[in-house]
Amino acid sequence: MPLKRVTPGRFWPLLLVAASVTALAAPVADQGLGKGPIHISANTLQGENKPRQQAIYTGNVIMTQGDVVVHADKLTIDAVGGKVQRATATGSPVTFTMSSAQRHGYGDTLIYKPGSGEIILMGNAHLWQEKNEVSGQQVTYFLRDQKTAVTGTSGKRVRSVFYPATDHHSAGGGRP
Fold it and tell me: Which CATH number fits the domain that encloses residue 110?
């Protein structure tokens, strides 16, 4: 079944349910993500309720939740029973900032999984905490325990740059 163009007036019940359920997602570390509703603005929105719950936003997409801001060309929200399972953003590149943790990054694709509290950057992925940087084909940031996993591709290695902390200013704990 092809996606139907939905006007905001006809789509608001699904959006309200998705945002409300997302606000009830499992708590994560005090990083702002997972707290409060997800706000999304874009040039267009297409959505469906059956056979699956999915909303596709395109054109200058901005998604915010707490202090996390994602900018993308396209964002697909997949939900089950009104609960957001996955938000997949694509762009050239997709960028995100998380001000409370002093992190920002980019990649060709960003996947956010509210249930597990993961942000996955794929394709030319880079993640910074202050000046410290990690990069590779895929960078996964685990919000709850603030851990990072980086993988490379065949022929390309992962890279990291860590700056030593100074006496007067921390370089972010040395862990992006």
Answer: 2.60.450.10
- Each residue's pLDDT tens digit, 12-66: 334 433 333 333 333 333 445 556 788 999 999 999 988 889 999 999 999 998 8
Q: Does residue 173 form part of some domain?
A: no
Contact 131, 106 (CB under 8 A): no
Instruction: Provide the domain limits for residue 65.
Output: 4-161
Enter the tokens of residue 9: 């007036």
Domain count, the chain: 1
φ and ψ at residue 171, rounded to 5 degrees: -90, 20
